[in-house]
Specification:
Elements: H1 2-15, H2 22-45, H3 47-54, H4 65-93, H5 95-115, H6 119-147, H7 150-177, H8 180-200, H9 205-210, H10 214-225, H11 229-248, H12 254-262, H13 265-283, H14 288-291, H15 293-301, H16 307-331, H17 334-360, H18 373-387, H19 389-395, H20 404-456, H21 465-473, H22 486-496
Helix pairs in contact: 1-10, 2-6, 2-7, 2-8, 2-10, 4-5, 4-6, 4-20, 5-6, 5-8, 6-7, 6-20, 7-8, 7-16, 7-19, 10-11, 11-22, 13-19, 13-20, 13-21, 15-16, 16-18, 17-18, 17-19, 17-20
Length: 497
């Protein structure tokens, strides 16, 4: 007891000197991940400008249509390899080191892209970027959730959507104003700054506690959350619960461990939900639109608006909506925001498709040929408001701490597979059935995913991890409500933040 008191008093002397608020320290910890995700948005959107420049007769690298589709879609295949190793890295190396290491292949990919002289080098560079993105796709929501206090968690998780939108806008602006090699250098710089900021942040307290590194856990927790009475109680509950867990957990084989995990409803139910969430994320055109914005908008506008102007219109709407989403996600229920985005997206996609068909059959006068642009921009608004941020917010909340790494990896696999399938098939879809037909397919697919999620997805806003876990376990008291003790509430707030 004396040793424990001694360490506490020493730490107290250190942290009472800190004048930076806990919120700002959490913001610093999250900002490195946010910059990485800006780079991810740039990765996704960069083909939209790269391919346009390489189609010029005097381009340094000449591509076939097959090369183009692979350059846009190979990120999805590379994501799989990154997601496979992510759970191991998160469990064994920790959140901080995993985030640091994920920046290295991304930096190497952009460096190789800057120096690329043939299609093979371009594909290799995109593969390296995708590998880093795969690791970060699993690490980002986990890290942000564990760095954040519960009251800031929703807004911080919504910054993932903001980061994607910012990266897409930045990549298209750089690609419009700069030569593609210079644009690649500018986009890659986000990862360098991200690595610096991640290195300035501590490891997350929950991870340190699970590894029995309690002195480091105490320092990290206080650095992030301050040192008021409630925070001290939460800290002690966190460390004591992990000590108790270590003493009570019997040693069993890995096969028995994992076979026991996958049949637990608190694991497989969130995993199934996240599979549907990430399928929805991709089938909504989330990665197709940034990769093929110029040809897509060329058909939608029918030449009434210059291609790059229409591309930047899409980017500005996406960016402004992502800023709004950071506020909305923290204020409204998760289900409300998600289904609002689904309703707007489905209606806008089907209306755009109808208008394009009517225009092709001559039912829309020439002076109104631009009208499909309006529902298209509403589609961008809807999917950015709800379909872009909510899957990432839910991913940081829905898994219990013990299964968070594994669950994120498995559900992330669906994200990467659907990324590849949707982006790889997009050029063929645009050629065979046009933008109007593709939008119709996307609208119907979003509606189908939305129906499943309507019945599967619980509301998670304002609930502790224990309450969410109890919901999936089906544990309820006599009144039909989840029974939660005060100690469990404190413990789960610590695990969240």
């Amino acid at each position: 007891m004396s040793e424990k008191y001694e360490v506490t008093m020493t730490d107290s002397a250190v942290f009472t000197k800190q004048r930076v608020s806990p919120f700002l320290r959490q913001l610093l910890a999250v900002s490195g991940i946010v910059l990485y995700m800006i780079g991810t948005g740039a990765n996704i959107a960069y083909p939209g400008v790269l391919l346009q420049q390489l189609r010029q007769p005097d381009s340094a690298v000449h591509l076939t249509p097959e090369h183009e589709s692979w350059i846009a879609s190979i990120l999805g295949l590379a994501l799989i390899s990154g997601i496979i190793v992510a759970p191991f890295c998160l469990q064994k190396l920790g959140r901080r080191l995993t985030n640091q290491l994920s920046t290295l292949p991304a930096l190497a990919g952009w460096a190789l892209l800057v120096a690329a002289k043939d299609p093979t080098a371009l594909l290799m560079s995109r593969s390296l970027q995708g590998f880093g993105m795969g690791i970060q796709a699993a690490a980002a929501p986990v890290s942000i959730a564990e760095y954040s206090a519960p009251k800031h968690r929703g807004a911080f998780l919504a910054t993932i959507a903001f980061s994607f939108a910012t990266g897409m806008l930045v990549a298209h602006i750089f690609g419009t104003l700069l030569y593609w090699r210079s644009a690649a250098l500018a986009c890659g710089s986000f990862y360098a700054v991200s690595l610096v900021l991640i290195s300035l942040s501590p490891e997350t307290p929950p991870f340190l506690a699970t590894k029995g590194r309690f002195s480091e856990c105490r320092k990290s927790f206080r650095w992030l959350r301050g040192q008021d009475d409630d925070a001290e109680k939460e800290l002690e509950v966190l460390m004591n619960s992990q000590k108790h867990k270590d003493n009570q957990t019997p040693k069993v084989s890995k096969f028995k461990t994992y076979s026991g995990i996958i049949v637990k409803p608190e694991f497989y139910k969130p995993t199934v939900i996240m599979m549907f969430m990430f399928v929805l994320f991709q089938i909504s055109g989330m990665t197709v639109v940034p990769s093929y914005t110029v040809p897509m908008m060329a058909e939608v506008t029918d030449g009434t608006i210059e291609s790059y102007t229409s591309m930047l219109m899409v980017d500005v709407v996406r960016f402004a909506t992502a800023v709004l989403a950071c506020i909305v996600v923290n204020k409204l229920n998760r289900r409300t925001v998600l289904f609002l985005g689904i309703y707007i997206s489905v209606a806008s996609l089907l209306l755009t498709s109808l208008l394009l068909y009517l225009r092709d059959f001559g039912y829309i006068a020439d002076e109104y040929k631009w009208t499909p642009v309006v529902p298209t921009l509403f589609y961008i608004f809807g999917k950015t408001l709800g379909i872009l941020p909510i899957p990432w917010a839910i991913a940081g909340e829905i898994f219990p701490l013990a299964y968070r790494s594994l669950g994120s990896g498995i559900s992330g696999m669906f994200l990467s597979i659907m990324f590849f399938v949707v982006v790889k098939t997009a050029p063929t879809s645009f050629r065979q059935i046009g933008v109007k037909g593709t939008f119709c397919v996307y609208g119907v697919s979003i509606a189908i995913c939305g129906i499943f999620l309507f019945y599967l997805l619980p509301e998670t806003k304002g609930k502790t991890l224990y309450e969410i876990e109890s919901y999936f376990k089906g544990v309820k008291d006599k009144t039909g409500k989840v029974e939660v003790s005060e100690k469990d509430r404190i413990l789960e707030k610590v695990e969240e933040g």
